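Lab meeting, item 3. Inverse folding demo.
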């Protein structure tokens, strides 16, 4: 297992449960593999809901399907 990304951002709806839990699992896996200095997990503050609220007016930041 190897990550080519310096930072991997995890999120869920509000980043209060699943997002932080997955980031923790990622950090644990990096440590087991001895890669904790090559990548890290981060959590999107406020989750995707807050991100959409902040960037909804920016044409290229949100694609509405």
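The presenter then showed the designed sequence:
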């Amino acid at each position: 297992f190897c990550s080519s990304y310096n930072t991997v951002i995890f999120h869920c709806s509000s980043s209060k449960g699943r997002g932080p839990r997955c980031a923790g699992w990622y950090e644990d896996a990096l440590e087991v593999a001895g890669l904790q200095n090559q990548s890290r997990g981060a959590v999107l503050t406020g989750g995707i809901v807050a991100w959409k609220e902040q960037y909804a007016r920016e044409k290229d930041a949100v694609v509405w399907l």
